[in-house]
Amino acid sequence: MSLFSLSGKTALITGGTRGIGQAIALGLAEHGADLILVQRSTNVSDTQPAVERLGRRCEVVQCDLADRKQVEGLISRVVATHSIDILVNCAAIQHRSPAEDYATHHYEAIMQTNLTAPFILCRDIARHWISQGQRGKIINVASVASFQGGINVSGYVGSKGGLLQLTRAFSNEWAGRGINVNAIAPGYIETDMTADTLTEPRYAAYRDSIIPRIPVGRWGKPEDMKGVAVFLASQASNYVSGEAIVVDGGWLAR
C-alpha cells in the first residue's frame, strides 16, 4: 500500500462544501478516502458529485455548527452507522470590525463555530476511538492568524489562536493512544472569506501590500492545501503530532 493511500478510510469533514474545505475533501477522495460532509442543510453541494465522480462514497450529515446542542450530538449519531478514521475541522466564519467596536454577539458566534465546535468534535471522536482501541487522525484548519494578531479581526484571530493551542493540548493527551492531532495553517488564500479583501476598493492599499511580502509571489489557492492534508491524514504522518504546518507561500518567514 502507498504511504499516502487512504483506501478503506472514511473522513468526517466540516466546511467541506467550498473553498479550502472542499479542496481538502477532494484531495482525500483522490487518495482513496470516502467522505461524510457536515452541512447546515442537506442540499447537494458541488463537493458531493465531484467526490462521487472520483469513485468514492460521499454522504451528507446535517448539523448547524452554530448550535451547540446539534454539535454535541453529531459524533454519536455518525459513529452509530459509520466507522470514522479521519476528522477534519475546517468550517469557520469571520467578522471584520475595529476591536473597540467589536460586538459581543459576533465574537460569540465566531467562537462557537471556529473553536467550540471543533473542541466538541475532537473530544467526542477521540473518546469514541479510545473506547474502541482505534487509531485516528484529526486535522484542524487553523491559520497564520493563529500566530499573528491581525487588524479588525480580533474574534477570528482569537478563535484560530485557540484552535492551535487545542491542537497541541489534545496531542499531548492522545498521541500516546494512537490519535494524531495536527493543524494546517493557511496564509492568504483566494476563498469566499477573502473575497472582499481581493475585490473591494476600500481594501486596495492593504491588498497591494500583501503580495510583495509573499515570497512565492501570489495568493494561495484552496488546492494548495491538498498535499499537506493528505500527508496528515495518511500513515506517512504517524510520527507527527501537535504540529501546525503552515502553508502560506513563505509569508511568516518574512
Automatic annotation (TrEMBL):
<dbReference type="Pfam" id="PF13561">
    <property type="entry name" value="adh_short_C2"/>
</dbReference>
<keyword id="KW-0521">NADP</keyword>
<protein>
    <recommendedName>
        <fullName>Ketoreductase domain-containing protein</fullName>
    </recommendedName>
</protein>
<dbReference type="GO" id="GO:0044550">
    <property type="term" value="P:secondary metabolite biosynthetic process"/>
</dbReference>
<dbReference type="GO" id="GO:0016616">
    <property type="term" value="F:oxidoreductase activity, acting on the CH-OH group of donors, NAD or NADP as acceptor"/>
</dbReference>
<dbReference type="InterPro" id="IPR057326">
    <property type="entry name" value="KR_dom"/>
</dbReference>
<comment type="similarity">
    <text>Belongs to the short-chain dehydrogenases/reductases (SDR) family.</text>
</comment>
<feature type="domain" description="Ketoreductase">
    <location>
        <begin position="9"/>
        <end position="177"/>
    </location>
</feature>
<keyword id="KW-0560">Oxidoreductase</keyword>
<dbReference type="InterPro" id="IPR002347">
    <property type="entry name" value="SDR_fam"/>
</dbReference>
<dbReference type="InterPro" id="IPR036291">
    <property type="entry name" value="NAD(P)-bd_dom_sf"/>
</dbReference>
<dbReference type="InterPro" id="IPR020904">
    <property type="entry name" value="Sc_DH/Rdtase_CS"/>
</dbReference>
